[in-house]
Design brief:
The chain is an all-beta fold. Helices cover 0% and strands 49% of the residues. It is built from no helices and 29 strands. The strands form seven sheets. It has a five-stranded mixed sheet with strand order 3-5-10-7-8, with no helix packed on it. A five-stranded mixed sheet has the order 12-14-19-16-17, with no helix packed on it. The protein has a five-stranded mixed sheet with strand order 21-23-28-25-26, with no helix packed on it.
Length: 357
Amino acid sequence: MLKALTFCIFCASLTNGKVLVKSVNPRDECGSILSGNEGNFTSPGYPDLYPSNVTCEYIISTSNADRGIRLTFSDFSTELDNDYVEVRDGNSSTAPLLERITGEPDISTLSATSTSSNMYVALVTDSSVRGRGFSAAYASICPNLLTDDKGGFSSPNFPSPYNPDANLCWGISVQPGFAIELEVTSFVTSPEDVMTIYDGASEDSPIIASLSGEVIGDYYSTGNNMYITFISNPANELEGFVVYYKQVCGNRFVDPSGTVSSPGYPSPYPQNANECYFISVTAGKTVQITFTDFVTEPNYDVLRIYDGPTADSPLLASLSGGETGTVVTSTSAKVYMVFTSDADTGGAGFTAEYVEV
């Protein structure tokens, strides 16, 4: 157990035969209770050597019970195998183990995420070689991260009433270069209970929509991340909601006319490109595309044009090399295009004008 600091210069107790050290100097503090929705802490003495033969316990407890905790490290160095850090999914040494970290791991991939608002971190050292220890940061995050190219979620207990005083979140992340279509198929809440959809990876992103009452509809991100929150009040809970999402093309064109270009045009397109374009005009109309410039590596860097909303639609044209002046016309109001390039020499790329006809 952690002991509260009062007026001592140095406090100690035994834990499994090792000394649990506490100091009033934050830099030398061996173990602490950390609160707030984000913060930083280090091993005792960091960046100087940590003490020998200690167990330093850090208990992180954030304020939102519906969120998890993300722990990251900006530095980590301990004696390999003998001195280590344990990260557990809870507030005690018996909680499920998330990570056991030792030596000098790659900090760019070093992190741990809890499923609740509590996390237990312990530095355990022996009596021999010492290291500089670690510098760590924690933050309250959404534990519901969805990374498949399609999926869905619902309010807790659906179709039974959702919980009062809920503060829920969902993060959606699809492949770079694509966007997200969110389809709200059922939504019944009290006017005070609100779902907010953000165009990005956090609540700091622009708001796409705020939903309450009874509503259905489709909502789109501009990038490959979307963040959704739902906050309910203490009373008047109703059946809630069902939401589905899928990965869609990130380059969406819905005006009656416009311009479509290769990545970076008029500069040469990048190697290993994989770019998609979705054009949707007025129902009952068709799409006419005129390429005012088209220069790619023949046979290897290709623009494929599909007569419909996806790459599963019939292929209209496959363009490569010199295709300036080419005109392609769909049979429907939707066109899907995919441009791919290989790892060799590219070209100037393409630009085209489309118009509904």
